[in-house]
């Protein structure tokens, strides 16, 4: 979500909505800030200070006059400028990034669109410096970078924020140019501050439709700001609907990667991680613990596991551990962890489908997509919410998971090796409890979310006036 504190949400929401006030205007002349073109319908209060009004009047009398780069100039655009393309194929633009929780749902949606319509053209927009700059091309999709803006903290005390309105204008204008060139019928925003300028620019793109997808049980600021402009809002949790116009909401669940929806044998998955273990061939009972430290790393979880893994494996000869430390924590953990034949230590898991299939219990943060994957795979879980997430999303997600899936929740301030080991033993030591947690998770899973969202996007594209 957009990096704003809750106390500034209302003010910033108004600021961003002002930037899109001229929703879906007819093609008009363009304003230029330096080398960035903007529709002249863009709010002038943000586009230039009042002192430029006289220059603007002179510019309107002479549309082709060039002014200094620091001033606004008026260039006559093509009278038919709009989101156009010579092809009649489906064209969808997708914006979202910053974290895997915003990127992977976007890729899952794109995959389903391509499955339904192989001729569809899909373009991702995001930050070149973000995860999306690598993840999206790796998934086989076109990616173009756009400028991003975010409020510095503390919001009202940071001098950088005085320039925020002007940076927002420039980012929206640059995003509008990319969208105009591509000509999408539908633009999809999956959250993160990078999606805000792109989705705001849709208001200046005649005929295009806007769809947003919210992964969390409590919405981020970006999606709350964009809601009035959206045609459809896809939600992961019913409890989130109260924050949006109800008539626009569809509770679809979160889209997950196709591989997680395919059946994988538990024995095959376990053999992948522990190929030399005799348990699988002997048919003996074994327990596999999957620890997910996040893509970058969850230091508190890693330290707790570090201080208890050796004793746990010593006491439980039938227990195995798959431990993803995260990229940032791997070197430190690798230097401190002793090699053990029943322990796999890795910075990142590229085969999440096999990891979930192999696991009996998952220990993890409670990011929206991890919670969705736990529900989809029907795994009992122990969740440790991160206290450092905007709007405390992870605590809200964990509380929802405790309610619907029976997940065990440990606050970070009560997490240590003892409490973690006790909770793990409590779950793994009770087959009835594990079966109940798994059944509840599967009951609330929405494995076809990607298919439903993709189908709605394709249907919405048919009502678009973009041709």
Automatic annotation (TrEMBL):
Start and end residues of each stretch annotated as Disordered? 44-69
Q: Which InterPro entries match?
A: GlcNAc_MurG (IPR006009), Glyco_trans_28_C (IPR007235), GlycoTrans_28_N (IPR004276)
Where do the Glycosyl transferase family 28 C-terminal domain residues begin and end?
Answer: 288-447
Sorted alphabetically, which keywords does the UniProt record give?
Cell cycle, Cell division, Cell membrane, Cell shape, Cell wall biogenesis/degradation, Glycosyltransferase, Membrane, Peptidoglycan synthesis, Transferase
Q: Tell me one GO biological process term.
A: regulation of cell shape
| Record's compositionally biased regions (Basic residues) | 53-68
Ranges where the Glycosyltransferase family 28 N-terminal domain occurs: 92-234
Span of the signal peptide: none
Give GO terms: molecular function aspect only.
undecaprenyldiphospho-muramoylpentapeptide beta-N-acetylglucosaminyltransferase activity
Q: What is this protein called?
A: UDP-N-acetylglucosamine--N-acetylmuramyl-(Pentapeptide) pyrophosphoryl-undecaprenol N-acetylglucosamine transferase
